[in-house]
Design a protein that fits this description.
This protein has one domain. The model has no long low-confidence stretch (mean pLDDT 83). It is globular, with a radius of gyration of 16 Å. Helices cover 87% and strands 0% of the residues. α2 packs across α4 and α3 (51-62) crosses α4. It is built from six helices and no strands. By secondary structure, the protein is mainly alpha-helical. The chain has helices at 2-25, 29-46, 51-62, 67-92, 97-120, 123-145.
């Protein structure tokens, strides 16, 4: 999985060029976006780590050139995927509710602070910061697998 997170970070950094290339190539954005979001959502529902970076990269390339709009879309996709995953997983296995409470607190803080930062930071800085954090996460995940 670390390689998927790193790949998402690379796509995030290359998003402006990829968006231009994709527009010139005449690809079907709606179909590509649906496929990418569905694939990343399945991955995110099971594993989660780095799915935000991957979804941000996909939405930047396929749906919106503005990072604040792409970030808002990413948040909605992650929220919908999280609810669907939670419904499935809570019926399939015992749930460690203490961990859920900690994660819920982090999600709440992130959902309040993230959009504020996304609207105020310059797009380039936000894109680079998200990509760098994605690379850091990829390294942490890789080290954890050793």
């Amino acid at each position: 999985m670390p390689f998927l997170v790193a790949a998402g970070s690379c796509v995030l950094l290359a998003a402006p060029r990829l968006t231009s290339w994709y527009a010139k190539a005449g690809g079907d954005r709606a179909r590509s976006a649906t496929f990418a979001v569905a694939l990343i959502s399945v991955y995110g529902g099971y594993f989660g780590a780095g799915s935000g970076v991957m979804l941000l990269a996909a939405t930047l390339v396929l749906t919106s050139r503005r990072i604040a709009e792409a970030n808002a879309s990413k948040n909605m996709y992650l929220g919908a995927g999280g609810v669907a995953s939670a419904l499935i997983l809570t019926t399939a296995a015992p749930v460690p509710w203490t961990s859920v409470a900690v994660l819920a607190g982090g999600l709440l803080v992130g959902s309040l602070v993230g959009p504020l930062l996304a609207r105020r930071l310059p797009a380039g800085i936000l894109r680079w910061a998200a990509a760098i954090l994605g690379f850091v996460l990829a390294v942490i995940l890789f080290v954890d697998t050793l």
